[in-house]
Specification:
heterodimer; A: alpha+beta; four-stranded antiparallel sheet; 9 helices; 4 strands; 43% helix; 8% strand; rod-shaped; B: mainly alpha; Rna Polymerase Sigma Factor, Chain: A; globular
Chain lengths: 273, 192
């Protein structure tokens, strides 16, 4: 310890003097320094003077500082952190209010799940609307065989038949709907010399409006899995022979409910004619 | 319990947006930092503001805190810088108003009631003198005196806080006490 003493004190006990003054000296150095004090009047006077300085500072502290209250430190924490603190206090075990707050607290995980759910619902609605708007219509192109259809749809189903016809373009968009369920019968709508394309209704309408030179006949149809009963077709002007009917079921058969064509009815009609 | 964690662990938690952890640091050090500011500035109101600003600055710069330094030394450095900033502001302000020294002279100290009027006067003068003497010390020496006398820190704690060798702390304190003694000896009040 004595080796590092400050040069201001020629005897070389400056650091020991300070350590002794504040009673932070180890016993061995303390004993050694006390022996030195007996012989060194400079260190003895210095120790007394430092003691007075120290007592003055101590008085100053006691008189003016000790009575002062510690200031209340106020830190402006971010809003998010304040919320965490409030929840932390209220979310004590068994606290109904705390659990309720936890339930409605929008944690990052919950927020992500909620956002994903919203996106999924939105996409579902869009897809549903799109599928509704893409009711297929049957476009019959009666142009020259090399005249390309003005409809370019990857989903279009093209069944090419005879190439040439002289018929004028007919757009039957607003005609009564000849909805048909195809049951492996010859296509009663199809005419000779026509191209038949199944395209979305909106596309067919827009093409027909923009390009009148295309000799397309637009007929609405429905998706293959959609059926229409004969009762529904009564309100329309569909020719009788174009209507296909559901086959009567053997179970739950009742005369007053069955409107399907029966063999007996056919015989009656033949007899009347 | 969070209160049993070290300062460095608390800072890590506070960086992770746990305000409670920083609150523990504030509670642990606010008295010492206030004492340091009071010793450095000699004014209660300024010391309060400086202590407040110290912790606000510390909180804002939590992310910049280097793990290799001690939190106490970091806080002390911020506090000393804050005190120096306050003193600079006061200096520029005092150019337009009354000088700080004249205010010091007018400040009345309340001596203990059991002292005679003569002793009370002497006590007040002595306190005024030591305040002025400490105030006149260079910052590095004053800081050590305040940490030792006002914060009541050990030499080892001051050494760790200021990241200086133990011998340097003792040497600085010795020099500071020597200068204070000389100031007091020049005063009309008799020093032993």
């Amino acid at each position: 310890m004595s080796n590092n003493n400050h040069h201001n004190l020629q005897c070389g006990f400056a650091e020991d003097l300070v350590s002794y003054l504040y009673d932070e000296i180890n016993p061995a150095d303390k004993s050694k320094f006390e022996k030195h004090l007996d012989k060194c009047s400079t260190c003895d006077k210095e120790l007394a003077a430092f003691g007075y300085v120290r007592s003055s500072i101590s008085d100053w502290r006691e008189e003016n500082f000790s009575m002062l209250e510690t200031p209340k430190i106020e830190i402006q924490y971010p809003e998010k952190q304040k919320t965490v603190e409030i929840i932390g206090i209220s979310s004590q075990p068994g606290s109904f209010l705390g659990r309720l707050r936890d339930l409605f607290t929008l944690s990052p995980t919950r927020a992500t799940v909620f956002a994903a759910l919203l996106v999924f619902i939105g996409l579902t609605i869009v897809v549903f609307n799109f599928s509704k708007s893409t009711d297929l219509v049957e476009v019959i192109n009666e142009n020259e065989p090399n005249e390309s259809l003005a409809i370019n749809d990857t989903n279009a189903q093209i069944t090419e038949q005879n190439p040439v016809t002289d018929e004028k373009p007919i757009i039957e968009k607003d005609q009564p709907k000849p909805d048909l369920v195809k049951e492996n019968k010859p296509d009663i709508v199809s005419e000779p010399n026509e191209k038949k394309v199944l395209v979305p209704k909106k596309i067919a309408e827009s093409v027909a409006a923009k390009s009148p030179k295309n000799k397309n006949i637009i007929r609405e149809t429905r998706k293959p899995n959609e059926t229409m009963t004969a009762n529904q077709n009564k309100d329309t002007n569909i020719p009788e022979d174009r209507v296909t009917r559901d086959a009567p079921k053997l179970t739950n058969f009742a005369d007053d409910e069955d409107d399907s064509l029966r063999l007996a009815d056919l015989f009656d009609e033949v007899g009347e004619s | 319990m969070i209160r049993n964690l070290s300062d460095e662990q608390l800072v890590e938690l506070a960086v992770g947006e746990n305000p409670e952890a920083f609150g523990v640091i504030v509670t642990r050090w606010e008295r010492k930092i206030f004492a340091l500011c009071y010793g450095m500035l000699n004014r209660e109101d300024e010391a309060r503001d400086a202590a407040q600003e110290t912790f606000i600055a510390a909180y804002k710069n939590l992310a910049k805190f280097r793990g290799d330094a001690k939190v106490s030394s970091w806080l002390h450095r911020i506090a000393v810088n804050q005190c120096l900033t306050t003193k600079r502001k006061n200096k520029s302000r005092s150019e337009n108003y009354l000088d700080d020294e004249s205010n010091e002279q007018q400040r009345v100290f309340i001596a203990p009631a059991h002292l005679s009027p003569a002793r009370k006067t002497e006590q007040n003068e002595r306190l005024l003198l030591i305040r002025q003497a400490v105030k006149a010390l260079p910052v590095d020496l004053r800081q050590v005196v305040i940490m030792k006398e006002f914060e009541e820190m050990t030499f080892q704690e001051i050494s760790e806080s200021l990241e200086l060798p133990l011998s340097t702390i003792k040497s600085r304190l010795y020099t500071a006490l020597k200068q204070l003694r000389l100031k007091l000896e020049k005063s009309p009040i008799e020093v032993i």
